[in-house]
Amino acid sequence: MSDTDTTTQPGTADEVQADPGTADEAGKAAPSRSKRPLVLGLVGGIVVGFLVVGLIGAFLWPGHAFGPGSPDALASEATADVAAKNSAALDAISCRGADGKPVAPINPQIFGVIGSVKPAGAANLLIDSEARVPVDLTIAVQGQQQPLPIDLVLGENDRTWCFKGLTAR
Polar residues: which segments have biased composition (predicted)? Predict the structure, then answer.
């Protein structure tokens, strides 16, 4: 008998419609569905959603989750060290190569011609692992002073910012 067939109970003229899904032709109860696939699907969807949001965030804000953070503190320190002509302090914050030596050491003779150093702006993040800090440098040679706009180059070494050197702007 199908789910929509009608039957007449013996002794009455009333028709009774069979209830779909409650019993099959043999009188057995219909098997109930498990909620496990639904729960697994929802949990899997949530996990995939978090991964997608994380990947999009990493693309839009590179270095935010896993990078060295803001270079501003080291930028201030490096500017102050150049202004103070402190080569030992610059050496301490310099990026190191595999041999443990500074990657681009500054010749100490350069400090003899530096007249003044003034910050010229905030650190600019070029790529995830390099930032440049604009600085207005004044060079004094034989009584002549010449302004020289330069950038302090900061790099990343072991997830921390380090000083890489100077470059012309």
Answer: 1-11
Token code pair at residue 67: 């990078």
Q: Look at the pTM and tell me if it is higher than 0.70.
A: no
The residue behind tokens 């929802």 is 42
**What residues have CB less than 8 Å from 131, skipping those under 6 apart?**
71, 75, 123, 124, 125, 153, 154, 155, 161
Per the CATH hierarchy, to which homologous superfamily does domain 72-168 belong? NTF2-like; domain 1 (3.10.450.100)
Q: What is the pLDDT of residues 50-103, one digit of tens each?
A: 888 888 877 776 555 566 778 888 889 999 998 898 888 888 899 988 888 888
Strands 124-127 and 130-141: antiparallel
* 151, 85 contact by CB (below 8 A): no
